[in-house]
Specification:
Function: Modulates RecA activity.
Strand content: under 5%
CATH topology of the largest domain: Arc Repressor Mutant, subunit A
Structural class: mainly alpha
Main location: cytoplasm
CATH class of the largest domain: Mainly Alpha
Number of helices: 9
Pfam family, one: RecX_HTH3
Number of strands: 0
Order of helices and strands: HHHHHHHHH
Protein name: Regulatory protein RecX
Distance between the termini: 60 Å
Helix content: 55-70%
Family: Belongs to the RecX family.
CATH architecture of the largest domain: Orthogonal Bundle
Radius of gyration: 21 Å
Number of domains: 3
Length: about 160
């Protein structure tokens, strides 16, 4: 029986091995398969076949990625940028956000409140302390309105 070595692997073998662990965007798979030395035309053909078979989907990747980042307490600005950096077009990103909001998964104001309340015990007594809280939320990817809402409501007794 012949045993395949890593250098004998086809683009499909490598792509399926990657997809077995987690979802990948098409652009990420192109990058990883090219790094393994596969030809551009064979990568494109392979990924077209995988997409037709439903084994690779940028829409499914975007939904999964968005859900995982919401679970981590990240805001929409940061998530959008990261999805675009991973090769998704704006329309695909918008569709994922719309699906998430329609499913009730993305209450950005509540998420900002929860992240802030977990990190800090109160809104801060000085402008410097409040600015620190604002920077924390901004670095997490929340927009101005979400930051303002969180600063006003994160420690309300009904915010959970």
């Amino acid at each position: 029986m012949l045993e395949r070595t890593a250098s004998d692997a086809t683009p499909r073998d490598d792509a399926v091995r990657l997809l077995a662990r987690r979802e990948y965007s098409r652009a990420e798979l192109v990058e990883r398969l090219a790094a393994k030395g596969h030809a551009d035309d064979s990568i494109a053909e392979c990924l077209d076949d995988l997409a037709e078979q439903g084994l690779q989907s940028d829409a499914r990747f975007a939904e999964s990625f968005l859900r995982s980042r919401i679970f981590r307490g990240q805001g929409p600005v940061k998530i959008r940028l990261e999805l675009e950096r991973r090769g998704l077009c704006r329309e695909e990103v918008q569709a994922a956000f719309a699906a998430s909001e329609q499913a009730g998964e993305a209450d950005w104001a509540a998420l900002a409140c929860a992240a802030l309340a977990r990190r800090f015990t109160g809104p801060g007594d000085t402008p410097r302390e409040r600015a620190r809280r604002e920077r924390f939320l901004a670095s997490r990817g929340f927009d101005f309105d979400q930051v303002r809402h969180a600063l006003a409501h994160a420690w309300d007794s009904t915010s959970d």
